[in-house]
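Posting for a labmate who doesn't have an account.
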Amino acid sequence: MQKLLFILLSLILISCEQKKKTFTESIFTITGKTMGTYYSIKIDEENVDKEMIKKEIDELLKSINNTFSTYLKTSELSVINSMPKGVQIKLSSDMNIVLTMAKKLFYETDGAFDPTVGPVVNRWGFGPDKDLEKPTADEIKKLMVNVGVKHFTLKDGYLVKKTPNVYIDLSAIAKGYAVDKIAKFLKKEKGHRNILVEIGGEIRGYGHKNKSVWAIGIETPSGQLAAGIQKVIPLLN
């Protein structure tokens, strides 16, 4: 009887261990750096071509970064910012979509969302140049002369700068666009149904994780590292 009980318990433990192994290994995760921050992509499905997916995602992220980065001097956005006024610039499809949306948001928010606030952002030390001294009110006032979407025109996929020193910074919208583009690629082109894409806190999810909705932790806004989670929200499609 004891021998039979031992065999039954062993079989149960083996079964549980096998289920646990399958349960965790079905989630494929890719992590790395992009756009000046970190990204994480999770796919909760079996039979995922991991090497191919990672290669395709890396190529997609590289292309997006080469379009919107303010750190890369050769990026499309950096080239636009370095161009003189009056020159007609042909935009890539991605740039045209994001700039059009950014300009739309500028008017919808009465200028609270402004893609030309780059010079002020940089002067405060949030751009490529770090650890700058606090700017004076006069410095900010001078920089604000070049701020506002009125300083460029956007029509039929072409941009023309009206002011030579206008500097466009799309950091507040480009990461979200990248998340949408990667999620769409994984869902529509690769056929994955259970995915979670995150870049620097921007998130989009589809389907489920372990047959439950994706659970997203919102950090406590204390300004301290490892402050903990204030709230967990479910994310479904």
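Reply:
Got it, the structure tokens are right above this. DSSP finds seven helices and nine strands in the chain.
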